[in-house]
Amino acid sequence: MYYNECMESAKQQTVLLGVTGSIAAYKACELVRLYQRSGFKVKVIMTQRAQELVGAATFRGLTRQPVALDLFDDPRNPINHISLAQEADALVIAPCTANVLNKIANGVADDLLTTTALANEAPLLLAPAMNVAMLKNSITQKSLKALASAGVTIVGPESGYLACGTEDSGRMSSPEDICLATVGMLLRAKSLSGKRILITAGPTREHLDPVRYLSSPSSGKTGFALAQEAVARGADVVLISGPTHLTCPLGVEYVPVTSAEEMLQKASKHFDGVDIAIFSAAVSDFRPAEQHKHKLKKRTTPAPIQENQNSLSFFKSQEQDRIERKQPSLSEIKLVENPDILATLAARRREFQSGKPYIVGFAAETENVLANAQAKLISKDADLIIANDVSDPLIGFASESNRAIFVESLGHESTELMSKQMLAGVILDRIATTLSIKNLT
Ligand code: PMT
User: Fold this and answer.
1) Which is nearest to 201 in space by CA: 178, 172, 175, 221?
2) Parallel, antiparallel, or unpaired for β 14-19 and 41-46?
3) Distance 355 CA to ligand 1 centre (A)
């Protein structure tokens, strides 16, 4: 369904095609034709080096549009890069040289194409083409990782015959693959448009006193990555997060909270009317029964010195001090159970006629990962549980990457190890597909 919708909407969409100075620049001519056949309007920006390999007149003829060559080449438009960026529904750079790729990854903007890329807010696709040593260079690899983590679609490069005469990786993907990937990218960009999504993230803090609390090592990365990906797919996102050091992604409504009770209260307020609710927060299951206004004292406090007193009696006994302060002893601190936010709101869903929202929970497990996640799917009444083995330091809490098992009533499926940003994309693609199938049935 999305594919047809996307092909239909391609008719009104503009692909801004950046062509850089690689020998593969001639293949960009074929790419223009493929975009046009798919229904896109194409505009071309060429770097100076690209013009030494293919003439601007070729692209002018193919697109029947002026080709943008320089920051100041349009006398009617003194801020060419901004209007080009605003016009684009997708920015595609094919071929993308190592130079341009590394510049974009580092925010360098020193010509028309790189300034446009920096100003661009539309989905960005890069099709790298370069010598294998340049590709394997750790700087290029770092740039590729950073770009992928920022949600940029990277297509290829592939292995094959390279301009330098060797057979190795670095060859630009075929124009057919790049065109298909562009359609897929736009498909994803719209897959959640019109949907309102609630996401819980991070840890909660359950204070015992102003300086001590119960919590978990959650960094919030998973929930924030989900929020960023959801906005990129056109969703309207509210992110309710416990304390983290992360910056809320642009375009997301941010609701910071501290405790589980506060998280429940805010999630409850935003729950009605959302289409999708994702509970990725690591909520503390317990909190101290009593929260003390002042810091609990660990040591005895000095008592007034009496005459003939020896140095040992300078301090009150710990027990006497504790009783006077009406403090609990550490071994006496009582815990009470926190509300289960997911289960509470899933129960509320039963009252809604719409059957909405689609509910996704996580399961942080250290053993029997699949069985425990399957039990949580039922006990919490979720539609999908994303289970992760948090005993593995490479994945789970505060790590950069994760590997998950998607658990649904009809079965389960494991993912590869990938960055949390990529996993967020995979999760949202799966949710979008499930919802589109539900809409059809
Ligand atoms: O934030 P990061 O550093 O990126 O780490 C990611 C993560 C490990 C926190 C994430 O991948 C994860 O597993 N989140 C869920 C952690 C958790 O609390 O799991 P759980 O198995 O205890 O809870 C199951 C589900 O119930 C979760 O969706 C949880 O949000 C929800 N829950 C649990 C307890 C509670 N009181 N209220 C809840 O809503």
Assistant:
1) 221
2) parallel
3) 23
